[in-house]
Amino acid sequence: MSANTLPPPQPPECLTRSYLSRGIKGGTIIAEDVLDLAEHRRRLLNADSYRPDECRNCGDVRNHAHCFRERTLRGADPRRRPLVVEIRLYRCACCGAVFTVLPAFIARHLWRAWKTVERVARGEELAPKKTMERWFSRLESDASQLVQVFTASVQGALSDALQRSRPSVREAFIALVKPFLAAGSSIFDRIAAWIHRLEAGVRLM
Length: 205
Hints:
By secondary structure, this protein is of the alpha+beta class. The chain has helices spanning about 15, 20, 35-45, 115-120, 130-140, 145-155, 155-165, 170-175, 190-200; strands at about 25-30, 65-75, 85-90, 100-105, 105, 110-115.
């Protein structure tokens, strides 16, 4: 069998496991409408601006501002000084679940802003060799889980397009979903947030 007919490699487990499968009652909530640092900093000034309407675990509406944590965002070039961003956490008064509210422009677990990841993926910037190898291997890994999540949850033209083409790798999945997004500076951030909304914990990269 030639390499051209082999199925794509499976993505690492860290990308495919949902919060439900891991028994996580808290986790990350992505603020999908916060697409830049200026808006994020504005919202940090008021605890209510990021406060979840209800607990994603038990449904209680009493979510208290819990604390802040720092996220370090590196550039593609490791010689550049990283940006440290404060992130707000909330705790449910009923079940004790703790939620991190992450602005959409920050890539979960990648130590980068999504726009940096996207520029590297497009070949517009270079990151450290090992980082690029890891990112590109993830983009070239199997996309069947993402296709299943979307076709089960999304109706209309996008669902029809996914069922027709069944993109086999994540890079092709991104290309197919892109036309269904509103114009903007980045698409990775919005696709990643969409995936997380449909199946919390599952990651694009």
